[in-house]
């Protein structure tokens, strides 16, 4: 923990999980209320409950997708670039991953350019 509270990344994840939980809880309450008002049966009841939970589940899955495919690779890329600046001859152990894989050729060019500048 930092002096001002949690780090920004943990606050963002906490907010995302809180929003997902509130949405799921709201969906459950709404589905229970609608179920008592309409008294659906069979497939209609299943569709009602699935539809009520879909909003919270979507928020959770989008957040999970962003965390795994964008935020984590960006943190790794930030560390790699900091290592490159500190030591241009350092070995690159982890290529970009997630949605940043398409930037791999650009990253390799940056590493080569940094090595040329350090050699000069």
From TrEMBL:
<keyword id="KW-0812">Transmembrane</keyword>
<keyword id="KW-0472">Membrane</keyword>
<feature type="transmembrane region" description="Helical">
    <location>
        <begin position="12"/>
        <end position="34"/>
    </location>
</feature>
<protein>
    <submittedName>
        <fullName>Uncharacterized protein</fullName>
    </submittedName>
</protein>
<keyword id="KW-1133">Transmembrane helix</keyword>
<feature type="transmembrane region" description="Helical">
    <location>
        <begin position="46"/>
        <end position="66"/>
    </location>
</feature>
């Amino acid at each position: 923990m930092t002096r001002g509270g949690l780090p920004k990344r943990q606050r963002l994840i906490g907010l995302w999980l809180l929003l997902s939980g509130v949405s799921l809880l709201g969906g459950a309450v709404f589905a229970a209320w609608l179920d008592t008002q309409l008294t659906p049966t069979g497939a209609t009841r299943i569709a009602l409950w699935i539809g009520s939970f879909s909003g919270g589940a979507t928020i959770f899955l989008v957040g999970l997708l962003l965390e795994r495919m964008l935020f984590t690779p960006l943190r790794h890329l930030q560390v790699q670039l900091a290592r490159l600046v500190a030591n241009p001859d350092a070995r690159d152990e982890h290529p970009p991953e997630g949605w940043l894989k398409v930037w791999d050729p650009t990253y390799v060019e940056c590493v080569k350019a940094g090595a040329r500048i350090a050699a000069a």
